Amino acid sequence: MLNIVVCIKQVLDPEAPASAYKIDADANKVVMSGVPPVISPFDENAMEAALRIKDKQACKISVISTGKGLSRTVLGKVLAVGGDELYLLDDSEFEDLDSFATAALLTAAIKKIGNPDLILTGRQAADTNAGIVGPGIAVTLGLPCITVARKVGVVDGKLRVEKVVPDGYQVMEIALPCLITVGNELGEMRVAALQQLVAARKKPVTIWTHQDLDVDAALMQRTRLMKLFIPQRDSKCEFVDGDTPEERGAKLALRIWESKLVKQDK
Amino acid sequence: MSNGIKLEERLYKFTTSCYRCLVCTKGYPEVVYEVVCPIYKRFRFFTYSLGGMVMLARALYENRIPVGESASEVFYKCVTCGACGEMCAQNDFADSLWMQHELRARCVETGEVPLVNMAVIEGLKKDDNMLQKPKADRGKWAEGLGLRNITQEKADVYFHVGCRYSYDEELWPTLRAAASLLEKAGVDFGIAGKDENCCGGRAYELGYHGEFTKYAENTMELMKSSGAKTIVTPCADGYYAFEVLYDMQGKKGDVKVYHITQYLAKLIKEGRLKPTKNVDLSVTYHDPCHLARKVDPWLRSKQNEIIPIHEKIEKGEMYQPPRDILAAIPGIKLIEMRRTKENAWCCGAGGGVIDAYPEFAEWTARERLDEAKETGAEALVTACPWCKRNFLDTQKGTADMKIVDLVELLQQSV
Fold first, then answer.
1. In this predicted model, which residue has the larger pLDDT, A224 or B274?
2. Where are the alpha helices (DSSP H) in B187-245?
3. How far is A252 from A259, CA to CA, in rounded Å?
4. 8 Å CB contact between A163 and A148
5. Subunit contact B213:A36, Cβ cutoff 8 A
6. B224 burial class (0-12, 13-18, 19+ CB within 10 angstroms)?
């Protein structure tokens, strides 16, 4: 049986309406009224990759998430769609960790769960867009890694991966164990029916704090947000007068030239 | 430090004002202090009452308890019928409903919501309706009626039918009757057919304020592009959303909002509709919460009126239009139930309870049906698709009582 670990992150809903985003300047935080947190969309793609492997062969899918105030209801969706167990590394000590510290923490958890055959993560998180944690875990565990996969499948005991490149994709084979980061090209995570959501309540959820994990305290570095703000954008609209369309066109060209908005070759 | 529970200062003061009198659960003396709060009557714990929830809200705000599953369950089991707000002497400005909305929003932000709500909201995001039905089927009720589509042609009035009516085929006769009455009265109206979206009201009541904002902006954009200045809706939930929630969030603008019963009562008053045919039926009328009791406090608060508690019952403007229609239909005999208007017992479908706790919704409807039968009336008349659906489902298999929509009754007479 193949042991798969999928790492997921709880983020603010990137698809919420713009008017729902507000900034609490004192706390330096985004405040969203009446908007639930979600699983980072690329991590849902990674979960779907694991489920597609499980559709074809016996697998155990363990899912890990880290942060503070993790929602069992939101993250529990992965158990409803076919995940077998969920580990929540939930502790105030785990808040605002930088990418390397997060990778070290997840590595400690993965070691504690047992050595998996395959680790899947999203290509990057929807909030920071850093894309470091996945390869970071691979480095810490000393595993080979392929980033931005659009298809993942097991063929003759090896992993066959289609990796997205700017002008198409490359087909690669990689030995297990390894780590793959998954892109949106793979497809959306399947939707859980209500009965599956209810049944998932019976699946095991383990909560670990910093006392449960063997992590070097020196590695637990935090990010410090200096300033959070919505950029001011000014737009000006100027109408160009003229009696004929030709005259207006000529004046417009001149105005654009004067404004230095176009490159002015000598 | 607070644990994420943010309540406006006034709401926080409200949470400190409860002295556990339990008046929020009981009706006025006119109904001999009979219980009017479904959640309290069902679960029989102080926590399951406005007073209890107020104490929970305070404890959450003061960080004495976390936003957990058990607190969330109490908030989501409430049918949000608004009876408590009308009864509580400390509650002058619809605070009880505001507080309920705020607390549910906090549950959503922390992910502590009933699982079924997650599925409902996923469906809303995908197909723009609360019933998890395909978007393409939305306008099917109007096929063959030749109604104008306001996304293509201008009209004075936008007839927004809502999610429940759009997809519940058993309720389509009411919609068709409403459209036919509007045509008979010469109203210049249009529908949006398959392009109609949810009003967002139910999402707001479930705590998903972000989704609500999206749909409110969408509806107002439709109003702007269509040139319509008036919304008429047969859905009581929709009426509450347009009249109260849009206004609360500054989205309503100068659009006039009518529930179909208010609009039809107006047309009768103006002589544009004349109910002349005899409808020989004794009926009792069930007041939908979203049509009056949840709207009245907001309108009063807007007028900045502080009405002494026992004068509220005489005011009752919002409760009148459906009764005016019944009075205008020859042959109809109206027998009121014990608990009526402000004291009305909810049908049980409100606040998402019909989806999340269907057994409780049925228990609540059963009590209302029994009360209706006690009057000796032949039919129970209502004016809300959610109430009608819950009553029909509750007495499925039995023909205890005829459940009729007010609009259909009027059509028989015109």
1. B274
2. 201-205, 209-226, 236-240
3. 10
4. yes
5. no
6. exposed
The one-letter amino acid at B281: L
What token pair was written down for B330? 């020859």
Q: Which residues of A touch B110 (CB under 8 A)?
A: 37, 69, 71
How many C-beta atoms lie closer than 10 Å to residue B34's C-beta? 16
- Cis peptide before A177, with omega less than 30 degrees from 0? yes
Q: Are A41 and A122 a contacting pair, CB within 8 Å? A: yes
Q: Tell which residue, B320, B310, B328, B312, has the closest CA to residue B287.
A: B320
Task: Please name which of B344, B366, B259 lies closest in space to residue B35, comparing C-alpha atoms.
Answer: B344
Distance CA(B393)–CA(B18), nearest Å, equals 37
| Paired residues of A121 in beta bridges | A7, A181
Q: Are strands B157-159 and B230-233 parallel, antiparallel or unpaired?
A: parallel
Best probe of the B interface among A8, A22, A35, by most B CBs < 10 A, is A35
CB neighbour class for B111 (10 Å; exposed up to 12, middle 13-18, buried from 19): buried
Q: Which residues of A touch B (CB under 8 A)?
A: 13, 16-17, 19-20, 32-37, 69, 71-75, 77, 191-194, 197-198, 201
| Cβ–Cβ gap A34/B209 under 8 Å | yes
Collect all residues of chain B within an 8 Å Cβ-Cβ radius of residue A17. Answer: 210, 213-214, 217
Beta strands B230-233; B256-259: pairing state: parallel
E-strand stretches of B92-187 = 157-159
Q: How near does any CA of chain A get to the CA of B6, in Å?
A: 10
pTM for this structure?
A: 0.85
- Predicted interface score ipTM higher than 0.90: no
In one letter, which amino acid is A205? V
Pairs of residues, one from chain A and one from chain B, whose beta carbons lie less than 8 Å apart: 69
Decide: A6 and A42 in contact? Cβ < 8 Å. Answer: no
Distance to chain B for A192, nearest Cα, Å: 8
Q: Inspect the interface and report whether the beta carbons of A69 and B110 lie closer than 8 Å.
A: yes
Q: What angle do CA A152, A59, A57 make, to 5 degrees?
A: 70
- What single-letter amino acid sits at A256? I
List the end-to-end C-alpha distance of chain A, in Å, as a whole number. Answer: 70
Residue B85 CA to residue B24 CA, distance in Å, equals 7
Type and span of the H or E element at B189: strand B189-190
Q: What are phi and psi of B61, to 5 degrees?
A: -65, -40
Amino acid at B370: D
Calpha distance A252→A239 (Å, rounded): 9
pLDDT, averaged per 10 consecutive residues of chain B (414 residues), comes to 64 86 82 88 94 91 86 94 86 76 90 89 92 94 95 95 97 97 97 96 95 94 93 97 92 92 95 96 97 84 55 62 96 95 94 94 96 96 97 84 95 95
How many whole angstroms separate alpha carbon B256 and alpha carbon B252?
9
Q: Which of B109, B119, B213 sits opposite A36 (nearest CB)?
A: B109
